[in-house]
Request: fold
Amino acid sequence: MATPTLQPHVESFFDEDSNTFTHLVRDPHSRRCAIIDPVLDFDYPAARTTTQSADALLAHIADESLEVEWILETHVHADHLSAAAYLKDKLGCQLAIGARIREVQDIFADIFAAEAGFARDGRQFDRLLEEGDSLAIGGLECRVLHTPGHTPACVSYVIGDAVFVGDTLFMPDYGTARCDFPGGDARTLYRSIHKVLALPDSTRLYLCHDYSAEGREGFCCETTVGEQRLHNIHVHTGVDEAAFVDMRTKRDAGLGMPRLMLPAVQVNMRAGQLPPEDANDQAYLKIPLNRF
Reply:
């Protein structure tokens, strides 16, 4: 008789300022867990980072006596700054991201004129993950799907009967990720989405962001593969690749820059570390004028 698929216990924490969900994924038979896509709070007008969201997560972990084994990033986010470095320091766990982070670092190191010593080989992370890799969260197996298109380095994590897709998909009434960032590609995204949609219909699908589509109240982070197949407004069953690419390309052409993209990418490509301090002991973020 086949062993039933373990169902991880998932708790999701919402940061309203960036519309980001951080997921805490726990082995149901132990205290071991992983954090997916943590948030570092950022007051843009004041250029001030704080750790309120991360500290609330740490307090919950302590209250539940949990043991965090991994911090998992689905990609280099443009919507929020990552608290991965702060949490890793507090928890002593490992940090992982998709192996094609190297391509993202190479692109944005040039755009932001990164310091001469900035490493473009992903060494800021403990593990770089390829398609088909797996890692353990207690007794759970976390299997990696490479799901590029939004960025080259995007990965999704299949853990038991759940999959964590980052920005690849949104709630069915909101659609799919944009593909106009450097290294993005609509055709690639379509194919990546169908890797996710090949999972069983009952698979729980967890999102990194929700922007509450028109006519819906509140924010959601959980749907299913079956619901996406039937109801996703951009990529439901019957939408072919050419139609998707045409829709996505036209839609992206009218989208504005994400509010936190410029600061977020500079921090997130460094695994949540701030840029190094200048000669005056002050760290700076750069704004590339007229680049985007």
Q: What stands out?
A: The domain at 9-260 is CATH 3.60.15.10 (Metallo-beta-lactamase; Chain A). The chain has one domain: 9-260. The chain has a mean pLDDT of 96. Residues 241-253 form the longest helix (13 residues).
